[in-house]
Amino acid sequence: MSDSVISDTVKDAIDIVKDHADDVHDHDVHAGDVADDHGDHGGHHSSLGLSNTKLAMWLFLGSECLLFGGLISTYMLYRNRHSANLGPDQLWDIPFTSASSFVLLTSSLTMVLAVSAATRGDLRRTKIFLTVTALLGGLFVAGQIYEFTTFYREGLGFTTSLFSSSFFTLTGFHGVHVSVGIIMLIALVGMLSKNKVSGDNAETVEMVGLYWHFVDIVWIIIFTLVYLIPA
Amino acid sequence: MAIIERPADVPAVVVPTPTASTNFGYFRRPVETTGWKSWAFTVDHKKIGIMYGVAAMFFFLVGGLEAGLIRWQLAQADGTILSADKYNQMFTMHATTMVFLFVMPMAAAFANYFIPLQVGARDVAFPRLNALSLWVFIFGGVFLNTSWFLGGAADGGWFMYAPNSSGIFSPSNGVDFWALGLQITGIASLVGAINLIVTVLNMRAPGMSMMRMPIFTWMAFVVQMLLLFAIPVITVALFLLMFQRSYGATFFSVEAGADPLLWQHLFWIFGHPEVYILVLPSFGIISEVLPVFSRKPLFGYPFVVFSGAAIGFVGWGVWAHHMFASGLGPVSVAVFSVATMAIAVPTGVKIINWTLTVWGGKLWFTTAMLFAIGLIVQFTIGGLSGVTHAVAPSDTQQTDTYYIVAHFHYVIFGGAVLGLFAGFYYWWPKVFGKLLSETLGKWNFWLMIIGMNLTFGPMHILGLQGQPRRMYIWTDYRAGEGFFNLGFWNLIASLGTIVLGVGIFMFLVNVWVTHRPGSTTLAAPEDPWDARSLEWMSTSPPKPHNYDRTPIVHDLDEFFHRKYEDVGEGDDHDYVLRASGAEVIAEEERNADAHIHLPAPSYWPIVLAAALPIMAYGVIYNTLLIVAGAAVAVMAMFGWALEPADAEPSDFDPPPPEPATGTELANV
Amino acid sequence: MFTTGSKLLIGSSVLATLAAIVYGVTQVDSLGIVGLTSAAIALAFLAGVNVWARDSNVSSMDSTAVATAEAADAPPGASIWPMVFAVGAATALLGLVTQQSIFTIGLVVAFSAGAQWMIQAWAEAASPDAAVATHVRSRLANPLEYPLLGAVAVGAIAFSFSRVMLWLSKTNTVIAFVVLAAVVAGIAFYFAFRPSVTSGAIGGALAVFAIAVVAGGVAAGVDGQRDIHVHETTADLALEGHCDSPDEFEPDEKASQTVAAKSSLAAEVILTESGELEFDVPGPIESGGLGLTLPRANPNNILFRNESGEHRRLTVDLGPLSEDEIAELEEAAAEDSHGEEAHVSERRQICTTLIEEGSVQLLTLIIAEPSLPYDDDPEAYRFFVPGTDAELNLVVP
Amino acid sequence: MSLDRTPRNERTSMQVAKSTTTFDAVNPGRLARLGSVAMLAALVAGCANDAPQDTWQPAGENAQKIHDLQWPVFLVAGLVGVAVFGVLFYALWRYRDTGQPIPKQIHGRPKLEIGLTILPAVILIFVAVPTVGTLIDLADTDDTDCIINVTGQQWWWEIDYPVQDGCGGISEPIITSGQMVIEVGTNVIVRGTSRDVIHSWWIPRLNGKRDMVPGRVHTNRLQAEAPGIYAGQCTEFCGLSHANMRMEVIAMEHDDFEAWKANQLEAYAAPEPESLAAEGESTFISQCARCHQVNGLENSDGELIIARPDLNVWSGAAPNLTKLMTRNTFAGASFDLLSDVCRPLVWEAPSDLVGERYNEGVSADCLNEVDLREWLRNPPAKKPMYTDPTKLEATNGLPRGMPFLALSEDQIDQLIAYLLERK
Tens of pLDDT along D95-139? Predict the structure, then answer.
């Protein structure tokens, strides 16, 4: 979105400055300015050539970046504040978390396949790949439940230290995002089967896909910053 | 539904088609065009804008009442009107209400109403999301204010510095209400921001390039961008606070090693852009008003646009100037001090451009124009006092004193509120089809200006003489001697509040006089101000579908160029009236589009919005309520996702004459 | 357009709200508000339902239309929900006398069945045409069914599998996790590229998978989890009286060798190469003399820097514990160690972990009592390094 | 800068003006200052008379630096304001609608606008450079002569002098509250923190404010040119009684300061047996000593009594009352210990007598018994504090502030007699 807007804006700005600098007025309509869908379904045309939903989803994800940015900053500030010696060194099980990260990444791959099947109109594969994406996501959540349980048994509760509060908050937020994504995936499979998606199938799948990829990317950042880089 | 036995002699064919049932109850979509349902479930951006405005106005009066009590308490030394506890709640809620429940939603009201009109769209990009924003804001605001009756409102100041906001130091539920209420209104702002950004980027009429957009739309657009990125930051802070208070987390517990400055950083990273979120819409409004009443285009439109955008960017890099006394270390303070001075430049550009817009014009001093000029003057004072505490060492003497209170009231009341009032008077005929009384309007203006200067002017002196903020009492011992001591100025400030209150009351009187049943005020002409921008090219009030013909835009100030023709030769421009505004509009009506398609109303936005306070009460009182609220929310979301944009024929009662796919308004 | 009944309900609701506000402003306690507000909400809800369900339906006030509507006497369709409702209610009753979780499950089942029943009844009342009724039903029911079924499915699988992993050993967990994921992905690809596999087969495979995972989870849950060891901390060192020992204990083994970037320290305490304890406070306070002054009742952040060649810890001694406190500690320790005799501290000591040369550790002290009463106790109110003679006096005003 | 100056203030300000060489050095254009600045300053700052917390009457090096920086900024801001309003109002008058034709549709003059953008930027550069310089000066901690710790809590300041070679040498920690005593002309570094929420240390005539944040130690430079009592106030909102959290800095000459230090460390003198004060001592032990430390106080068995505020109030501290009557305010410096008659003798003493009169402490004749009695009868009624026992669930039953003790009038008489000897 941004590139075209910026270039569009800058170009216009230059024009305007040029035009108005010597008070010249140009009353001609630039041919390209008038979209040919004039008169049809007012408001449904798109100035950027990008669908409204997609644009909105990108904006939403941009906003989400700041949300996770805030949570990650909080974690980074507090990651060493575990006076009672219950910190990453004692707790992390890197092989396991690597495995679950890998599973989540695989689900991104299946999501890509689902989107591409949906674009081709291949409903059967779309549903299969959406289902497997949801299952892999479910495994990831299972891994997170497992991980949280072991940490808790090892002595790290939500309120134990600043480190634990910020760790559970950050990964918990991410887990909730994954879970919401899974629910969307499963519901989408159901809706596709019953032909109940309001709007374009392919675009709806793509929207859920965008969200899913975003959640995966956030996990990669979390995995790197929280688990891999030593405190 | 009791089953009613049908009389045996009535043949079955009496009911022609089974699908035309009349008994859908909940299952029918609300398609009413009159009555309360046409408002509660509407997705029309204009109705939503009006409801935003009414709700915000209500909260303005609530916040004003709180301010009045504060000043009454401080009128004399050792005031006894409010207890310390109530006073603390009062100033916390005054700020919270004014910022989150008045200025922001009132700006949203203008943005909602005018952005689609100004870019030549039929509605916003996501009409149902728009309804959601409105109801979430209203329910959030009501939720926030129910705390008054449930053990006391928040008492930590609107900045809610940790650790004073944690359960130990603020044990009532007030801060919980505050944190959750702001989460809820934050959702409203975020959803609204996404919606309006998409509208601006994607719904522009043919020919409406970004640099032909009316300036209000531009400023509102910058504001929505700021909201998009500022809201998640405060959301994080509020979540941390909520986990701290409700679930025992230790984010702000110093005993556990927490750093209280974390809250300050998160809060001000949101809080400083928030300042621009408050004032930029008003800058946009007066940038519309000044050219119209000067009969001249806005001077340096691209400069105003880019300075607005620059404020939007630089606004992210100055948050720590709220923390010069917090102990950041001299290097950070120096950096933020200089960045803060830098942001004065684009702000100055705006003031210069407004002055030059007026310069050489043909000035028509309507009430709207007076408010716009009032904004320039009062905001300039606020801006200049702002420069004095961009100087960080000097700020350590001024911060948290009344000098700062004076400064930001000149900026926010003088900047944001006066601009909103300019907007009321300017666009009232557009929205309601009637002109507000100019005589009452001028009373309104002068009383507000005198009132605000009497109220906030003396606060400069109070602050420089060392009176800190947020004190429920002040004492004679530290008020100095002589007649013009701090007591005198405190009293003047309190008396000023009365003048200010009467001024604002004049506005309500004006609205009443104009619209009361049996009012003699006539309908306004279609183009009462000889306006310039696109929104005036629709009827007043606009039709549900805004424009009969999707406008094709050729110019900045499109409407002006449709009315006036350039008869000059070469560089010599000479404009003569070619057609009156009413004629231009009539021309559009004659060439109306054949098929205009509007989305149908929906129950789900208001249902989803209602679920949020239920969950919030659940966080405070009972987890079961969270579950119940979440169930309603999930149901509403999926109901929404499953619902087609258009109503089905069976939703209409009686069904529409033809099996149409939506509301077909042919040749309206 | 409002019927009399709605008007009555709306009026009562408004009245209750006003009463709640008056009560809230005039009275102190909140019980009355809760009651009145609940009443207001309940009345408003009833009014809403009434308005929505009855008044919105213009023709409900037209008695002829109602009487002649075909819906009026359509025979009700077959329904499974009354039975499910009964089962749920019975389960809930059973739960009442046995276990709370069963009660909850029963309640949820009964509630969902009741909701479905109601929706179906409404839908059937709306139109005698089965197709229309289904369509209408789906408008209200689908929004809940899709997400809730999704949530239940993923919740059951995720939770069950996490139990399986808790049952497995640490290494096997990783293997099981990867294998399962690979199997899921592999089968999915097989299905995807074999168009001959029917959707029934896919559904069957999914069902088998779900049942297998849930069954595995139940089995693992019944069998119990692998032993997970609780990590000891420096606080345990202090309680067990190991703070005055230079030996290595569990918390020392994996100690984080870093320290949070504290914005400000009360003091830095340094174990020098020559084996002496020195302190460093900003400003004209020199090490030596009476010792280090720390304010009482504040969290004081002390940074311990080890410049000696050995692994060392810093310990603070704040005087002897009272007999009651020691007894309490012993009791707690006995409980922890299941009867074995446990070593407990007899002095109020706090310490860092053992750190190597060049490392730093943070110690946060909140000192309740002034040092005044312990002036005669040479052991009290001092920093020391176990295993060396290094000592530093601590003054708390 | 004031319209109606009383003699005492004239004296102090004159001394300030004399002693601040930098003030004159950077200000060659005295006329300019006397002209426009005086006008502006009189308007914005001088309208109130001699408020004790006036930020425009610096009385020490640090505040002076700030002042030297801020008045030119105010001047420039004022001039810019005058210029903008001049142009604006001229335009409003000149171009009012007098029936002129539709004006030329001028969209802008880029060169003019670029120029008008650069102009404020240049002005601001001139402001920015000295700002950064002053900032660095004020953060300096190397030239310290004396370290004093302050600790904020709801709603009073504890002030303690750690063991050090500075401050003329301190061998035993001195602990006091509400009033800080410093020596004239020395560079004092306040190292401050907090025991509960964020407070802010601000003595306007000596320096700008600095937040005192729990878990962090922040510094604030103080230096007074002349002896005097400099008032200040907590300026970061800190809860219920934020308005009642005040403090003073008393600057005195070297000899007076030494005398003050010696007095603070004097051994405890038990009241004469069977006097009212002696009864007061046992009342103090039974009622007050749980929280308030009096150094050297012993119980009947001859054991030292150690107050345990950590078991009785949330902040874990209560003011040390060993030398209560050497201070002249109490309860977070909210109330005077000196009666209305005696207060001016100390507060408005000529600068060469400030230290001496302050060190005399509060005598029975000068005691402000009204406020002290009201306080002892019911502290939370006198100053809002969080002590209602039904509302202390969040703090495990510990009050924030001094609770109601239900003292009888007899006990209050005894306590006052006892406390009067604490100096």
Answer: 999 988 888 888 888 888 888 888 888 888 888 899 999 988 888
Say whether B286-293+303-519 and B44-258 share the same fold.
yes
Please give the CATH architecture assigned to the domain spanning D7-138.
Orthogonal Bundle (1.10)
CA–CA dist C175, C164 (Å, integer): 12
- Are C254 and C389 within one domain? yes
For residue B200, the one-letter residue type is V
Residue ranges in D364-421 assigned as alpha helix (H)? 369-377, 379-382, 409-420
* DSSP result, C200-266: HHHHHHHHHHHHHHHHHHHHHHHH-----PPPP-HHHHHHTT-TT--S--HHHHT--------S--S
Residue C143 forms part of a structural domain: no
Query: What are the φ/ψ torsions at residue B220 (nearest 5 degrees)?
Result: -65, -35
Whether C229 is in a domain gets the answer no
Please name the residue of chain C whose CA is at the shortest distance from the CA of residue A103: C181
pLDDT in tens, A41-81: 334 457 777 888 999 999 999 999 999 999 999 999 888 77
What digits encode the pLDDT tens for the residues D319-335?
A: 999 999 999 999 999 99
Instruction: Give buried/exposed letters for C335-366 (b at 16+ CB in 10 A, else e).
Output: eeeeeeebebbebbbbbbbbbeeebebbbbbe
Tell me, yes or no, whether C214 and C240 share the same domain. Answer: no
Taking CB atoms and an 8 Å limit, are C147 and B640 in contact across chains?
no
Q: What whole-number distance in Å separates Cα of residue A125 and Cα of residue A129?
A: 6
Contact D147 C283 (CB under 8 A): yes
- Chain D: residue nearest B482 by CA? D49
Rounded-to-integer distance, Cα C47 and Cα B617, Å: 22
DSSP string, A24-50: ----PPPGGGS-TTTTSSTT-S-SSSS
Give me the residue spans of the domains in chain D.
7-138, 144-423
**Across the interface, which of B361, B391, B488 has its CB nearest the CB of D95?**
B361
Q: In which residue are the tokens 């001090």 written?
A: B337
Q: Which residue has the tokens 């006539």?
A: B522
| pLDDT bucket at D22, cuts 50 / 70 / 90 | very low
Domain B286-293+303-519 has what CATH class?
mainly alpha
**In the block, residue with structure tokens 């502030």:** D401
pTM of the model: 0.87
Superfamily of segment(s) D144-423: Cupredoxins -  blue copper proteins (2.60.40.420)
Kindly state which CATH superfamily the domain B44-258 is placed in: Cytochrome c oxidase-like, subunit I domain (1.20.210.10)
The token pair that represents D44 in the structure block:
């914005």
| Shared-domain flag, residues C45 and C133 | yes
